[in-house]
Amino acid sequence: MADEPGGVTRNEELQAVIDGLDVDAVGVVRVEDWQDTRLGEAALKLLPGARSVVVMAMEVYPEILDLSSPGKVMGEASLNDLMDGNTDFINGRLTKAAYDVAKASRSLGFKALPLSARGCPLDSRFMEAAFSFKHAAQAAGLGRIGWNSLLITPDLGPRLRLSCCLTEAELEPTKSNITAACNGCRLCVENCPAAALEVPQAGEPYVINKFACHSFYSAAGGCAECVRVCPIGR
Description:
Layout: H1 10-19, E1 25-30, H2 38-46, E2 52-59, H3 62-65, H4 80-107, E3 112-115, E4 122-123, E5 128-129, H5 133-139, E6 144-145, E7 151-152, E8 160-167, H6 187-191, E9 197-198, E10 207-208, H7 210-220, H8 225-228
Antiparallel strand pairs: 1-2, 2-8, 3-8, 4-5, 6-7, 9-10
């Protein structure tokens, strides 16, 4: 599909769709800027012609998050169910947004790959996803990864969910002057019930035992302590 001479380009049409998404934040990564990095290589492995990554974010309400707990008593009403329902709703909205971008891309002649808010397939040998949403979001300028190993934004802290869409369209990358969102308060490290977090050494953004985190999360039926105790965005 060719652009009309003197008219709106296909990239501009797609950008208009992205600007109209019903999400709390959107960022764009230009794949070329991240070539020869794990982020760029992962994008091209999933969609060989990818030129842009669109990252979408939505807030997890603190009123619901504050009712979550890593422990539960048999037979007792679990308030974690409120968190699960809220997360399911947000995931659905974010996944729809990713598909909306993909649908618009494909209608304009660009191949696209929507990535559900539930995340990419996980390599259980190393606990690594096929594509890291949080690293894409950091590259898009939405925030910085903190000691809890999560994306932290100045406004929402780590209280957000993400989805992505890879597209062949060449979109303008978003920029940010966020140099640090995590203030190193240690609350996530000290309150992690799995003892999976450690204070990072100089040059390290975070230190996490992914296997300890995953095992505790599965055994406890959920955990969000590192998100709940973070003071950023409160």
